[in-house]
Design brief:
Layout lengths: L29 H21 L21
Length: 71
């Protein structure tokens, strides 16, 4: 957590798989994955618009498996 090792800016530039594994039973660190997703979408949109003038070179697909919604 002291430095950036995710490389979110590389998503959309080259084929990449990013896995975020969180506990099913302990929600303590769920905020970290939520921040990562939020930051990822911001970075993807900013790079698509500012660097590539609207479209990333590699199509990005997000697969969210077993997401729970709390009400």
């Amino acid at each position: 957590m002291a430095y950036d090792e995710l490389g979110l800016e590389k998503l959309g530039d080259e084929k990449t798989a990013l896995f975020a594994v969180v506990s099913d039973t302990d929600p303590t660190f769920n905020f970290l994955s939520a921040m990562m997703y939020s930051q990822m979408f911001n970075v993807l949109c900013d790079r698509a618009l500012k660097v590539y003038h609207g479209r990333l070179p590699v199509h990005v697909t997000c697969l969210f498996d077993e997401f729970a919604v709390r009400s």
